Amino acid sequence: MHYYNSYDRRKKQKSIFICVVIIVLIAAFIAGLSIRVLAKRKEISKELSFEHLEEMWNLEDYEGVYAQTERMLEEKPIQQSILVYRGYSAFYLAVSQTDTSAALAYIEDAINALRLSLISNYSKSKPQIQYMLARAYFQKNIFATYNCYADLAIKYFTLAKKDGYDSSDIPEYLGLSYAALNMTDESISAFTEALNIRESDKLLHAIGEQYYKSLDFSKSKQYLFRVVSESNDDILVLKSRNILGKIYLEENNLFDAKREFDAILAKDANYADAYYGLGIIYEKQGDSTKARSEWRKALRVQVNHPGALQKLNNS
């Protein structure tokens, strides 16, 4: 009898021991799982922190910033600082694209984020946000095929400047935006302001082109002469010579016009506008055969050259 009692007691103790071991193992598993979950949450929390966002921004990891702000905005959809990072990163991703449709998608995202950031809360960074929004609209105007966004670029560049944002490139951006809207006087004024800040061949050509459009040929030639004589940028020199050639045609100075068009073709034999200009010279001299020959050359280089097409269709 004593033997059976002892056996039962040992059996019960063994069962208790097994239960304790199982409980300890379960507790250890739960504790380990909890630690891993907490560590993962801490890791995610760190990834979604502003410190990590700033770190990526300082490293110019715009793709990383763009991806992180998307996750952060799911929790805080109208927090200005996140929207600003979103807009800025989208802008820089847009200008780095080689595919226009991808660039437009990023620009749209940049504009949406920056516009939301302007209405979500006022801050001392508002003028800078306006400036970046203006640059986004300026870039969209370059990418867009049909619609014009230069007016919105002008609006936000002007607001940024008015609210105290100081950036030396604003006058040049304004000049280009006014030019896109054919607002010649405003464009000349902005370009002249930009030229006083930092002179460049590009600005000299831009001012000369705008004076040509406003029919102020004397002032136009002053700026274009400087580009032709001083610039090392062959493309700008050819563009300036082409405008000079057109001015001489307007002034009926056929000798100097021919000199400019010949100089262009000596540098670039595939410059359609130069062939077109030579055709106009021969037309004015009454030589329709040579004129048509030059216009056909223009079309061989540029099949849809509007001036050459019109001349050949009408003659």
CATH architecture classification of the largest domain: Alpha Horseshoe
Largest sheet composition: none
Intertermini distance? 132 Å
CATH topology grouping of the largest domain:
Serine Threonine Protein Phosphatase 5, Tetratricopeptide repeat
Strand content: under 5%
Q: List unreliable stretches of 5+ residues.
A: 37-46
Spatial extent as radius of gyration: 34 Å
What name goes with the CATH superfamily of the largest domain? Tetratricopeptide repeat domain
Percentage of helical residues? over 70%
Count, helices: 16
Q: What's the count of strands?
A: 0
Q: What is the CATH domain class of the largest domain? A: Mainly Alpha
Count of spatially separate domains:
3
| Helix/strand class | mainly alpha
* Spatial shape: elongated
What sequence of helices (H) and strands (E) makes up the elements? HHHHHHHHHHHHHHHH
Overall mean pLDDT: 89
Itemize the secondary structure elements and their pairings.
Elements: H1 2-47, H2 50-58, H3 62-75, H4 80-95, H5 100-120, H6 126-143, H7 150-162, H8 170-180, H9 184-197, H10 201-213, H11 217-230, H12 234-250, H13 254-267, H14 272-284, H15 288-301, H16 306-314
Helix pairs in contact: 2-3, 3-4, 4-5, 4-6, 5-6, 6-7, 7-8, 8-9, 9-10, 10-11, 10-12, 11-12, 12-13, 12-14, 13-14, 14-15, 15-16
